[in-house]
Fold this protein.
Amino acid sequence: MKVALITGGAKGIGKAIAERLKINGLKVIIWDIIEPKTDISFMKVDITSFSEVKEAAKAAGDIDILINNAGITCDKLLLRMKEEDWDKVISVNLKGVFNCTHTFLPGMIRKRWGRIVNISSVIGLIGNAGQSNYAASKAGIIGFTKSIAREVASRNITCNAIAPGYIATEMTEKLPQEVKEVYLKSIPLKRAGTSGDVASLVSFLISDGASYITGQTINLDGGMVM
Ligand SMILES: NC(=O)c1ccc[n+]([C@@H]2O[C@H](COP(=O)([O-])OP(=O)(O)OC[C@H]3O[C@@H](n4cnc5c(N)ncnc54)[C@H](O)[C@@H]3O)[C@@H](O)[C@H]2O)c1
């Protein structure tokens, strides 16, 4: 049975991915800093800490599929942004992806099989006023994804990114109503995406049917960015 690890799987998109992969018959492990309300195997891990990730990985064992999903926002116009607002977002969204990929890649290389899916954002492609830290982290994930895809393609490991648009979760729930309306107007399919939409794309990217896809960033945004 293949083992999938999802970071930030306690709620939102990560939880939907974890539940879907479990239904698909995988052994699933969630890493998060908050405890999930689900019966899926859970470890409390702060992915920003290189040493904590290395230590927790010993208990998790070999992982076949890594879903780098954990992410945060701390929105401010640049001139109001404090150093810690920048560091916090880069640390979770980008360094966390490095820490986890660095940790689980050797096991995948040994098995000559692996799947890595990184959750980026359309904001990493088009930018957004008030989200320079978040946009930089999500654009960074795209460059990281392409580099890792090139490094390990010969080992039968694929690495892809998903760039969701506006997905209805707790993260977007806190947006002001007028911002949500502006987003909805810019979406040709005229609805917010769901966590289930993201889980469906993840299921495909880790399947045998996607074995010839690597280094790609796939927008999942109802046509918002094209
Ligand atoms: N919701 C959207 O519209 C949207 C759009 C584009 C991209 N995304 C991305 O999708 C991913 C999931 O977003 P979401 O909306 O489900 O957010 P969410 O806030 O609902 O969930 C994020 C999860 O990450 C966990 N997390 C935060 N810091 C962590 C850390 N240091 N270590 C381990 N876990 C940590 C949180 O505890 C939480 O469970 C994020 O990377 C986000 O940037 C979301």
